Amino acid sequence: MAGAFLDELRALLGQPQVLVGVDCEPHERDWRGRFRGRALAVARPGDTEEVASVVRLCAARGVPIVAQGGNTGLVGGSVPDDSGTWLVLDTRRLRRVRNVDADNLTMTVEAGCVLQAVQEAAAAQGLLFPLGLASDGSCTIGGNLATNAGGTQVLRYGNARELCLGIEVVTATGEIWDGLSGLRKDNTGYDLRDLFIGSEGTLGIITAATLRLFPAPATRFTALAACDGAEAAVGLLRLARSRLDAELTAFELMGRHALSLVARHFPEWPQPFPEAAFAVLLEASAATSEGARERFEAMLGQAIGDGLVGDAVVASSHAQSRELWRLREAIPLAQAREGLNIKHDIALPVSAIPGFLRDMEASLPALAPGLRPVVFGHLGDGNLHFNLQAPEGVDAAGFLRQHEAALNRHVHDAVMARGGSFSAEHGIGALKAAELATRKSPVAFGLMRVLKQALDPQGLLNPGRVLVTDPGVPETPTPPL
Amino acid sequence: MAGAFLDELRALLGQPQVLVGVDCEPHERDWRGRFRGRALAVARPGDTEEVASVVRLCAARGVPIVAQGGNTGLVGGSVPDDSGTWLVLDTRRLRRVRNVDADNLTMTVEAGCVLQAVQEAAAAQGLLFPLGLASDGSCTIGGNLATNAGGTQVLRYGNARELCLGIEVVTATGEIWDGLSGLRKDNTGYDLRDLFIGSEGTLGIITAATLRLFPAPATRFTALAACDGAEAAVGLLRLARSRLDAELTAFELMGRHALSLVARHFPEWPQPFPEAAFAVLLEASAATSEGARERFEAMLGQAIGDGLVGDAVVASSHAQSRELWRLREAIPLAQAREGLNIKHDIALPVSAIPGFLRDMEASLPALAPGLRPVVFGHLGDGNLHFNLQAPEGVDAAGFLRQHEAALNRHVHDAVMARGGSFSAEHGIGALKAAELATRKSPVAFGLMRVLKQALDPQGLLNPGRVLVTDPGVPETPTPPL
Asked: How is the beta sheet containing A39-43 ordered, strand by strand?
């Protein structure tokens, strides 16, 4: 049975584009090593028609499909389960830049294009594609859209969804929907595009996209500001937005614990404000350089005058700017060197963040004495990575195994009580599907199930991801942490 | 049967909130007088719970519902058909501003709030809600979202969809989905919000929304520029975007025929460039005034130097700015005074607009000699109102009746061939439902039908709007034009 299916698959794609056995191995686990499955095979179609033919074959034979791009996700949404019955559909041979339209400020690219290649194709025309992630060099635009990726410039340019004008999709029945619109206005019917974006391969497979481009900024400024509390950081955000408006392109918060871990593991890197309760990394971009630096510095001067900021440094060179960004980017690395930790990818209304942090500071020690909350993230979007590091000197794995469930519940309860989200930019995948089933309102969850049933009635597209197949039996990650 | 239903409705809402007979009359026709129906009754619920109870009653009794806000739509989507069996659900008593959150830059308002009241509530906090339409003073935010309204600032701030972070919806079964998120990032499942936005009351009824606010600009500049062709106007757009980026908040095109109609019907209004092939109205907004005017004028100076613009005037006062905007806003009024015309609300990739206009100029005279194309609209978004005025001195009604179908087909064929849209910002409603059935790709149309069936299986929400009930028998507007 499996053999006959593989023969049919080889007939569609050619022998070299169907991987089996040990060749599947790199496609069967996520890069963090939290999810490890087993695939029936890996298919590597070369164009949209081939994707559609593979999906039709799977529909006819009842074979589940998980689409995979760079496989850089954090929630186990791009690897098969351990049944050995799923096909991994590798999109990376769909990597053409089909078109760049400078007058329309759009480009059309195939799903397997690596994000960095997309950025570079835009830059080659003097234009900007502003999506930027830590995994730029390996993640694909298809995966970025399937997960509605965020990043550090959402404040100004929006998430992946807002950066996309149109998509091409292979549906669960293997039809091709050509929705590659380069239009900024099109009110001819339901918004199919946004339904597939962010659905993590459970409703259809995105094969190409028309993306929104921007003029490349002429100049860019970076600053680090010391704030003595979260209220001050929120006040600084409000001031910066009102004084700079769309010129404010990044506003990243870093808590003292986060920066002290960087200091410990990267002691050679200078830290301007090692004692501050919070440091804020601000970036401003301007279309013309005249007066832009003065506007940025005047805003920071006012922030100091208003008592929102204790001190601030503005990078005077690209190298200094890179040094400031390096502090921010080093936090996850420093956390990894420090040892195991629990990651939370939460969003809150910006106005609710100071109260949430106060609440956590007061309540967490009682739950897990010695726990070290490492706070950092995209304050401008209300998105924090609120990670919990095991206490110093304990067996971190054992400690976290003991406390993880209760800590997750505690943090997410506090987030939800304030109208927040327990998954801001990483998605649901396998990791959070069970939690989604319990935390989503029953009405929203019911609507999602109705949509899944309508668009994928056989249930073959990434089954159990986002929506658990049976809410009573959640799939659990392979290792305990 | 109808009597029993009305008794039940009165029991839910109270006698005064159920209109019957002649009291329904203002709710039974659209303001342009193109659609005239007959309602079973008009229900005026006062809160979301009451909306839900009305919808549940209608679901139980099999009564179709059309939601109605300000009833200012252009496509007949907010009035009942002529069967006398539908309930009109008037949302205008849902008019509370529930919350303004200045730190989060959001506000939560009920669907029946008039757009201008929403703008004013934001302005009272020094903030901007940038959606702006000709019908500001009477359209409701619920209708704006149900139709994904556009307007003159889409270039900078997006359509209604992009201005909305979360919604509250009453589903077809009368459940309430509270999706009133004030979050800029939330990847917990499918994008239900964008599915209801723009669905014109056919998938659910929006009862409240959390909207995105912006800092109010400190200063604003308006200019009128004369361009000798559409290519030059597109070149000016490209230059203005690259030099001003997000400071460019409006870019409106006006063709010579359009301005000459204004000159004829409003001769007392000065026209800076009566002979230009095209005039472009540009507006720039800045968060701080220092240097902003210089940036704007330097860009226009470069445009003149580059030969994109023949001449330009920059308003030196608010009154002068209003005069320039009045020219743009007067075009539809001048058209109405001139007589009957056919309206097209099209979108194209910006880069395709010059070729489209050349094609129309060459091909239309053969189809309908003497026809006067009146071109104006939001060039910055690729959205043109390409209206066709009957020749001078003929019986306009007869002429247009004879030619309308062929002209629509000709214009929309040319639009679709260039990857455009035949309904950019006005929606589908009843007017364009038959055309949608023929012009939408079969795959997209099939997906839309599947979604409608899934979310409104009884087919009681605004039936036949957007998706024709039977594609073979389109509903036609009551008067011929």
From this structure: A18-19, A39-43, A86-90, A65-68
Reported as a pLDDT band with limits 50, 70 and 90, residue B470 is low
* ipTM of predicted complex: 0.96
Place of tokens 């100091």: A304
Residue B389: band (very low, low, confident or very high) from pLDDT cuts 50, 70, 90: very high
Interface contact flag, B290 A291, Cβ < 8 Å: yes
Chain B residues within 8 A of A188 when measuring between CB atoms: 421-423, 428, 432, 436, 439-440
pLDDT of residue A480: 32
Dump pLDDT digits (tens) for B199-243.
Answer: 999 999 999 999 999 999 999 999 999 999 999 999 999 999 999
What single-letter DSSP state applies at residue B114? Answer: B
Question: Taking all residues of chain B, what is their mean pLDDT, rounded to a whole number?
Answer: 95
Given a cut of 50, the residues of chain A with pLDDT beneath it are 473-481
B469: Cα separation from own chain's centroid: 24
Instruction: Report the candidate in B467, B353, B358 with the shortest Cα–Cα distance to residue B415.
Output: B353
Answer yes or no: are the C-beta atoms of B339 and B396 closer than 8 Å.
yes
Position A152 scores a pLDDT of 85
Question: Position B76: which residue type?
Answer: G
Nearest CB neighbour to B288, from listed A190, A243, A350: A243
CB B148 within 8 A of CB B160: yes
Distance from CA of A368 to the nearest CA of B (A): 27
CA distance A425 to A427: 6
Out of B187, B351, B419, whose CB is closest to A103? B351
Pick the residue of A188, A458, A466 with the most B CBs within 10 A to test the interface with B by mutation: A188
- Give the number of other CB atoms < 10 A from CB of residue B478: 14
For B213-226, give one letter per residue: b (16+ CB within 10 A) or e. bbbbbeebbbbbbb
B15: distance to nearest CA of chain A, Å?
Answer: 31
